[in-house]
Amino acid sequence: MEEKEKPQMFMRLSGPRTAISQGDVEVFSEFEEGGEMWTGAGGRERRIHVTFDNAYSAPPAVFVSPSLMDMHNEGAYRAELVAEDITCAGFDVVFRTWSDSRVARVRAAWMAMGEMAYEDDWNID
């Protein structure tokens, strides 16, 4: 079963410059292929880039949370899910695990909130 990125939601708040974007992405799925996240040990990382449908005028605040974590039940659940390399145009969702944790797949829900360009802004270069 191939999962695709769900469409982003974009909303401008009552202030014309403040906006919220949100989405949900599959970070990885390695159970069926027997990938390193599922079979490996030690430190492991997966990174996926998210591009905003509408660019912000400054890097927004970005929040990520797991929307799916499929982990083996015989080991400890060791996981870190963070947003890194945040720019006006997008960011990276990063999942890390370590030691003997076995992870089959991870999806991440995300939300970005920040300032957008406004039609009445002056562009003085």
TrEMBL record:
Cross-referenced SUPFAM superfamilies, in alphabetical order?
Agglutinin HPA-like (SSF141086)
- Give a yes or no for keyword Ubl conjugation in this entry: no
From the UniProt record, which GO molecular function terms apply?
Answer: N-acetylgalactosamine binding; oligosaccharide binding; polysaccharide binding
Record flagged with keyword Ribonucleoprotein: no
Superkingdom per UniProt: Bacteria
| One GO location term (cellular component) | phagocytic vesicle
Annotated H-type lectin domain residues: 48-113
UniProt keywords, alphabetically: Lectin
Q: Which InterPro entries match?
A: Galactose-binding_lectin, H-type_lectin_dom_sf, H-type_lectin_domain
Q: Which GO terms fall under biological process for this protein?
A: cell-cell adhesion
In Swiss-Prot or TrEMBL terms, this protein is called H-type lectin domain protein
Q: What is the lineage of its organism?
A: Bacteria, Pseudomonadati, Pseudomonadota, Alphaproteobacteria, Rhodobacterales
